Amino acid sequence: MATDNAPAPNSAIETGAQEPSIVAQDLPAQVTEDGAEQVDDTPFNVTIFLPHDEKSIEIPVSPLEQIHEIRQSIIEHPLALQYSCFHLEHDRTRINDFLQVSEVEGLSTTPLLHVVEDPYTEKEARIHMIRIRELIGAAGDRTDTVQGILSGVSIYDDVVAVPKDVIAAPNSGAEAEAKEIVEYNFAAPPSLAMLIPKETKPAPKTVKSLSLSPWNPPPAPLRQKGHLLYLMVSTNEGEQFQITGHVGGFFVNNSSNAKFDPSPKAGPKGHSAHSLYTLLEKISPSFASSYAEFQEVTNRKDPLATFQIGNSFPSAPWLVPSIDSPLCAHSPDTARTQETFLLSGAENTDSLRDWNEEFQSAKELPRDTIQDRVFRERLLSKLFADYNDAAARGAVLVARGEVAPLNPTEARDAQIFVYNNVFFSFGADGVGTFTSEGGDEAARVATGKDVLGVKLVNQLDIDGLYTPGTVVVDYLGKRIVGQSIVPGIFKQPEPGENQIHYGAVDGKDVVAADERFAAPFEKLATALRVKKHAVWDKENKRFDLEASVEMKGLLGTDGRKYVLDLYRITPLDIAWMDDVSPEGFEYPHRMTVLRPELVEAMGKAKAREFVNNEIKRRAETKYAEKAKNDFEVTVAAEKAAAGESENGEVKAEEAKDEKSAETMDRIDMSGFKFALNPDVFSNQVPQTEEEMAEMAKDEEAVREACYFLRFEVMNKLLKDLKDSEISFPMDGRSLTRLLHRRGVNMRYLGRLAKKSAEEGSRLECFRELCVREMISRSFKHIAAKYLKYLPLPLTSSCLSHLLNCLLGSGLNPNPVAEIDESLKDLFNDADLGFQTVTPESLREDIKSETTRRYRFTLEDGWWYQIRHLQLLREVALKLGLQIQIKDFVFSAPAAESAPASNGQAPGESKKSKKKKNNRDGSPSSIASTVTAPQTFRPDDFVNVVPIFKDSSPRSTLAEEAMEAGRLSIYQNQRKLGEDLLLESLSLHEQIYGLVHPEVAQMYHTLSQMYFQLDQKEAAVELARKAAIVAERTLGLDSAETVLDYLNLSLFLHQRGDSQLALVYAKHALNLWKIIYGPDHPDTITTMNNYAVMLQSVKAYHESRRWFEESLRVCELVFGRQSVNSATLLFQLAQALALDQDSTAAVNCMRESYNIFKKTLGADDKNTAEAEHWLEQLTSNAVLIARQAKNEKERTTRGSFSFASRTVSHGASATKGSSQKVHEALIDSTVQDERDIDELIKYIGGKDEKSGGNKKRTGRTRLPNKRGGGPATGPPKKSA
To answer: Which residues form the Clu domain (predicted)?
Structure first.
């Protein structure tokens, strides 16, 4: 629910700097349109006068805004929230809502507007009631079939709600602060409770209920008198009022539950008002105060955490509270069932839209000026969001069998549906189109490739070329394609005519090549690097096509040119097809096309090669002419000395030389061409020798692309990971994004896993992620086979049994499927084949799937090596599962210390044998007839949400402004760059809305740039917004959310708020545990940062533990003798010194010095600095040892002594900062003549008894955490 104080959708949230208007003239040439007329866009304030009283509000506006944007700002202003049906007047003249502010005559000179209430229509009255219900909190919970339970929730406010376990008391001494910080348990399993929002006290009710009256709708005679709706309100005082919604407003009528009299009520309770909100204030004395309390409760959360999500799908968490939690409470609400009428009207016509016409009309909007482009892209963004939502809802109904097919006599996979003006079909080979390509498997892949192709075409935004709105939805094992209905798609062609005008018509037997499609297809082919090529029909007639023969052009009855079937925009990966699959494990289909990102990457590589060759050729040409040039210069010099040359001639010659040099520096790229033929290796038969030669050349180019993928792109990816040039992915989603960005198909996971294993421990994280992803994807395919035709009420039983076989065999090696017998009898024709699945058979099926799909053989006993919790999360995200939170027990309770750990289960088989004696370890669940403990029960699976792929394009305007801002900053034009970055932020928020994944990415990027520009307050604010929006749109535990929290932590620490930074850093690290498990390489840096933050709050001992854990992970990844480990040993030595463990500090610094010296050499600055610190730490340790010895001797003699002011047992150590360890260490003038080896032996001998505890602490090895390079410290080598 949107709070009343939430910002308007068209305005930017505060970023620590003043929000700019859309400054068109400040944008660079690539953003503005040349020759477009610009208006003065200086923002100014407009005073808005409200009706009925003397109140007025001021709103900042830009001349480039439209009046309806001002109207929206008024509706959301706290003083004007009761108004929804009104128009604006300027100088007593009504203003059209779609005029631009600059077009309102006189508004800039007299910025005064008046709100004038309008008469209601039935639709306006319905919208007003919905708005007021939301505004006052009268709307109950909703059961959403698509978005799921707690969709779009944020736990940002909960993260800082209880910081006492980490944050020390402010303004206390160092010792007190250190004591209050609880030691972090690195070995503890991750707590899943952190993914559940905290339960809060419910907000106070403003009214008991507000709904439509049973007397609604008004009869015809009363409709003639202006009656629109009849409402019923129960106030907190216990009174019930019947209200008439009239064209003039709302009034209390004389009706009751038994008597119908909608006339105005007389007497003291006969109130009326134009706004329902005002009427509620009049009839309920407690309404105003209770509404103020309601606002106070809702305003405790960050506005972004409650702002309504409009232009994107909210993220559905995979873990949800138990069904009896207050967070999932189902409250009574009479109006819940009435919302369909309130939203869509009695005939449901308000929600029926001609999606295709809206899409194509929006694309045809002008884009000549900046404001035109903003309006167009904003409309398209909202339109795609609405369509995606409608298509997803329709697909779920189709999957559940609740929509009647248009062809009920056809086989189920061949049936088609129309719902809400969206055309649906199954992603299966129902009519045999893909028989030769792999049948259902090929059809399923083709639909996914098609939606990707549509998205690419939408992003290119080519004039004269149109695409249908396209969405692919995966739900309970079914893949459903939703498309907007193209005019003419169902029209039967006339005899002799083809329905398709370009491309293959009937399979590939008939080919059409309408010249009207040549021009737009040529533009598309150029952008996609597709070569114009020949194809042949069944009669061997040649056609020269601009695109793949599979890509079709259709001339709609609306006269527009549509492009369809975009699943073959790139060539086949022939290298994959040529590889021999293991016997009996043939790859399931032939739709193995290369990714567009790979083709683009190869094009750029070819362009670089072309430029380098041209530079080399020119360099050789210059060298050949050098002697001649030298001779000419000598002659010219002699002539000049002799006075034979005039001044003007010399200048002209110099200008000519400069122009020639400039021409030489500019390389003409017109001669460069790179394009691939997408139809090679697809049964095309050239007829002549020339055609055969051309085809052979095209085939060789495709083979070169396959080689480029295998031996350059993939090797470069692994090298970048090994050299820490890029971050390691955290989970399956981030792994998929990384590979796709590089142009690597997911079928190469097996190859990448094998190559990673060859690199040893450095790429062990990546190998493990690849294997986990292969297992989870294989399980998804297996589960889909059982779920595809299973009735919805039986799906929970199927899911629980399959997951018990996959993850719960350690607790129960013989799981039994739990099925309600009454449902089993009811669906007696359902295929219950999942009942026969056993852990052994499922493991064998998964091994077979990974061999078939990835050509990778899982190791024997792989199920013992998996991390159970992380694999459960991957499976849940891929299938859209929402699971009740509980302590998941994956192994028998013999290992009581970590029942649900991080998925490591050594010795699992031994534990499973004791299951009969350990039944008390069964997870809590609803009683069942199955007595043996099982990890999962059917009741654990409370919901399944659809997984969808859409074709929504990104905003090119916002991205251009972003790139222009970056470029300006790199060119040292900081002021212009900052203005453009703010401009890009404003464009992102206007086009996408405030809560959108693209906006989250913008906040993330901008926060980093502001941090680099030393604007820390703005960086913190943007990082906070990035974390909240990422939580709501990408997931509470997504990789992006983790990075956003880490950024926020770092920026807070740099701002000086280390205590709060510790809270967010700890939250991010705990999320990391859930996502990946322990020992992720990138956590080395994060743990170093955390340790440095602890030092800043003087928690030296805990800081030392984090450095030790960081070093432990670094050893696993890089090895003990690496430079990375040396760097961490350097920092750990400093931390040990601060923790007053001087002996361990010297040992660590000595080891660091030795590694630096061996690896980098004695002359390296890191080696020199380590040597300097080693000398200082050694001197300090010797001094402390001497003082300890002297004190001991004094004590033995019974004499009195006082601690040295220079160095004591702990005082001087606590004086030092994280940059300078021990003031006493630096100030000490005592120098020992012995060398370092002798000094260390001396220290060790003297500290042997008294320093035992310190040594033991220094050797602590704590099992869980991960990281990258050090955050601070002189050695700059990043780990």
So the answer is: 333-577
pLDDT band at 1073 (very low <50, low <70, confident <90, very high): very high
Q: How far apart are CA 852 and CA 586, in angstroms?
A: 6
720, containing H or E segment = helix 714-722
Query: Do you know the residue count of the chain?
Result: 1279
Per residue, the 3-state secondary structure of 487-513, as one string, reads CCCCCCCCCCCCCCCEEECCCCCCEEE
Q: What is the mean pLDDT of residues 863-886?
A: 95
3 state SS for 289-345: HHHHHHHHHHCCCCHHHHCCCCCCCCCCCCEECCCCCHHHCCCCCHHHHHHHHHHHC
Q: Give CA separation, 1051 vs 384, 445, 1000, 1020, in Å.
A: 35, 43, 17, 6
- pLDDT band of residue 1198 (cuts 50, 70, 90) is low
Provide the β-strand partners of residue 891: 810
**Cα(862)–Cα(786) distance, rounded to whole angstroms?**
23
618 confidence band (pLDDT: 50, 70, 90): confident
- The whole-number average pLDDT for the span 706-715 is 96
Written as one letter, the residue type at 238 is G
Cis peptide before 326 (omega within 30 of 0): no
pLDDT attached to residue 64: 79
Strands 86-90 and 112-117: antiparallel
Tokens 């305007």 correspond to 957
Cα 1050 to chain center, whole Å?
20
Calpha distance 39→21 (Å, rounded): 12
Listed residue (1137, 1171, 1177, 1169) closest to 1273, CA to CA: 1169
Cα–Cα distance between 325 and 199 in angstroms, integer?
8
Return the pLDDT at 626.
Answer: 62
Structure tokens at 853: 């799909």
**Structure-token pair, residue 1121:** 């003798």
What spatial distance separates the first Cα and last Cα of the chain, rounded to whole Å? 45
Strand partners, 552: 564
Parallel, antiparallel, or unpaired for β 416-419 and 319-320?
unpaired
pLDDT above 90 as % of the chain: 61
**HSE toward the beta carbon, residue 416, CA cutoff 13 A:** 12
Residue 546 structure tokens? 């601009």
Query: What is the token pair recorded at 1271?
Result: 């955050």
The rounded distance, in Å, linking the Cα atoms of 59 and 47 is 7
Q: What is the 3-class SS of 147-182, one letter each residue?
A: CCCCCCCCCHHHHCCCCCCCCCCCCCCHHHHHHHCC
CA distance 987 to 984: 5
Sign of torsion over alpha carbons 1213, 1214, 1216, 1221: positive
**HSE (CB half, 13 Å, CA atoms) of 956?**
14
DSSP track, 383-446: HHHHHHHHHHHHHHHHHTT-S--S-TTS-GGG-EEEETTEEEEESS-TTSTTGGGTTHHHHHHH
Q: Are 313 and 389 in contact (CB under 8 A)?
A: yes
Determine the Cα–Cα distance for residues 449 and 367; give it in Å rounded to an integer. Answer: 29
Q: How far is CA 382 from the centre of its chain?
A: 19
Res. 889 pLDDT band, cuts 50 70 90 = very high
DSSP 14-48: P-SSPPP---GGGS-TTTSPTT--------EEEEE
- Residue (of 664, 667, 668) closest to 656 by Cα position: 664
Render the burial of 871-908: b for 16+ CB within 10 Å, e for the rest.
Answer: bbbbbbbbbbbbbbbbebbbbbbbbeeebbbbbbbeeb
The answer to whether the CB of 555 falls within 8 A of the CB of 561 is yes
286 CB-contact burial (10 Å; exposed 0-12 / middle 13-18 / buried 19+): middle
